[in-house]
Amino acid sequence: MALLLARVRALADEVPGVVSIKAGDNITDRAQGYSHGIIVTLADREALRTYLEHPEHVALGSLLRVHCDVLALDFVDAGS
């Protein structure tokens, strides 16, 4: 899983509009069975579309789904 998370972090340098990517192991018992978390911060909504359609993201998403359950949530910070 460490190699997959490293590939996820590398998307920050490969996909236009990605501001930052944080990824790591869950450290609490509140994760409802999820073992890892990923937070991707994007410049704007257009960057979300670019990110979702980027070939490396699509390929990596398919690979992640083979190895783990995925829960995705896209939102705009209410403080923005």
TrEMBL record:
InterPro entries: Dabb, Dimeric_a/b-barrel. SMART domains: Dabb (SM00886). PROSITE patterns: S_R_A_B_BARREL. It comes from the Bacteria. Coiled coil: none annotated. Residues 1-75 form the Stress-response A/B barrel domain. This is Stress-response A/B barrel domain-containing protein. It comes from Pseudohaliea rubra DSM 19751.
